[in-house]
């Protein structure tokens, strides 16, 4: 959110459950197995120095924190925002050859429509963007089309399928209000959220830094949220069908980071990495089971 911006834990992924049939659009073959539980995290790393991130750590410190996140939480898939390409590469190398990543750079567009990447502001850290880091190969990597400002910063959505978990993940970083320098009154988050929700199926985890508060009766911007977000799917910290609350994920005390899925949720935690103005949000899902959307199925 521009300012206002290894070893696995026992019991998390060691048990495998054989499936007797393919599991939906992501295509789980009948002869393969999926982990009973899969841990997915999202973290805005605050890697762009000029976005008021000077006091959140060096590139090496952020890469170390990224390496520790899956080690400490058991996360097999990590969705990242404001990550520097160099920091991502360093963490992936440290985690080992089984880890893979996909990266989409931010681009800043001027009034003439010329786009330039956003530098992280330090040597060897490269440019900033969004990414997916996983403990297995990533396939079907795509960048869904999404409405963006004519003049200003383009963030976007990045999707991929994590092979070992047979899980589709879609990582988003939405536009802040006033992002379009030529027309600051325009709102983009409603269309961007709709595009994000449209990417999902029954075996998808989607979310990221959505630069938005949860919808509530007193929130003037609550209208931007698609109807299906909290109904067809459930958010990591959603405690009941009617709940729209969640623990803060930003140092301002607001929740702006989200993970949604239709898979049964087995746990949700907020982790302060000490190297960002955002905490990481960590979701454990029952990957070998169907949707939890239904009466009495709102575990946390």
Description of the molecule:
This protein has 300 residues and is of the alpha+beta class. It has a single domain (34-286), classed as Endonuclease/exonuclease/phosphatase (Deoxyribonuclease I, Chain A, 4-Layer Sandwich), CATH 3.60.10.10. Helices cover 12% and strands 30% of the residues. It has helices at 59-73, 85-95, 189-198, and strands at 16-18, 33-35, 37-44, 77-84, 100-105, 107-109, 115-117, 128-134, 138-142, 152-154, 156-162, 167-173, 204-209, 234-235, 257-261, 265-271, 280-286. The strands form four sheets. A six-stranded mixed sheet has the order 5-8-4-3-17-16. It has a six-stranded mixed sheet with strand order 9-11-12-13-15-14, with helices on one face. It has a three-stranded antiparallel sheet with strand order 7-6-10, with no helix packed on it. Strand 16 and strand 17 (280-286) form a beta hairpin. It starts with 15 loop residues before the first strand and ends in a 14-residue tail after the last strand. The relative contact order is 0.17.
Give a short overview:
It contains 3 helices and 17 strands. The chain is of the alpha+beta class and 300 residues long.
Structural class: alpha+beta
- Shape annotation: globular
Radius of gyration: 18 Å
CATH topology: Deoxyribonuclease I, Chain A
The helix/strand order is: EEEHEHEEEEEEEEHEEEEE
* Strand elements, count: 17
Q: How many discrete structural domains?
A: 1
CATH class term: Alpha Beta
Going by CATH, what is the homologous superfamily? Endonuclease/exonuclease/phosphatase
Terminal CA distance: 26 Å
- Low-pLDDT windows of residues: 3-31, 293-300
- Percent of residues in helices comes to 10-25%
List the strand order in the largest sheet.
5-8-4-3-17-16
Please summarize the sheet with the most strands: 6 strands, mixed
Beta content: 25-35%
From the coordinates shown, what is the CATH architecture? 4-Layer Sandwich
Q: Give the averaged pLDDT, no decimals.
A: 87
């Amino acid at each position: 959110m521009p300012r206002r911006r290894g070893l696995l834990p026992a019991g998390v992924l060691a048990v495998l459950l054989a499936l007797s049939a393919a599991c939906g659009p992501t295509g789980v073959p009948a002869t393969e197995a999926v982990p009973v539980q899969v841990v997915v995290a999202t973290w805005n790393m605050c890697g762009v120095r000029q976005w008021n991130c000077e006091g959140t750590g060096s590139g090496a410190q952020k890469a170390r924190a990224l390496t520790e996140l899956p080690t400490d939480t058991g996360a097999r898939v990590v969705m990242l925002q404001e990550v520097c390409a160099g920091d991502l590469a360093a963490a992936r190398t440290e985690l080992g050859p089984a880890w893979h990543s996909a990266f989409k750079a931010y681009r800043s567009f001027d009034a003439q429509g010329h786009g330039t990447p956003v530098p992280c502001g330090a040597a060897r850290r490269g440019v900033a963007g969004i990414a997916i880091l996983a403990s297995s190969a990533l396939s079907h990597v795509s960048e869904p089309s999404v409405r963006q400002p004519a003049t200003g910063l383009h963030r976007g959505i990045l999707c991929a399928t994590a092979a070992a978990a047979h899980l589709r993940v879609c990582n988003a970083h939405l536009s802040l209000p006033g992002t379009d320098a030529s027309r600051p009154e325009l709102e983009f988050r409603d269309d961007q959220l709709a595009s994000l929700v449209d990417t999902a199926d029954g075996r998808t985890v989607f979310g990221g830094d959505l630069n938005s508060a949860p919808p509530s009766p007193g929130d003037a911007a609550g209208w931007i949220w698609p109807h299906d977000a909290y109904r067809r799917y459930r958010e990591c910290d959603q405690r009941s069908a009617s709940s729209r609350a969640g623990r803060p994920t930003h140092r301002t005390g607001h929740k702006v980071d989200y993970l949604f899925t239709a898979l049964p949720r087995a746990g949700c935690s907020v982790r302060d990495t000490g190297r960002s103005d955002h905490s990481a949000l960590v979701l454990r899902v029952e990957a070998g089971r169907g949707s939890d959307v239904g009466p009495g199925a709102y575990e946390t």
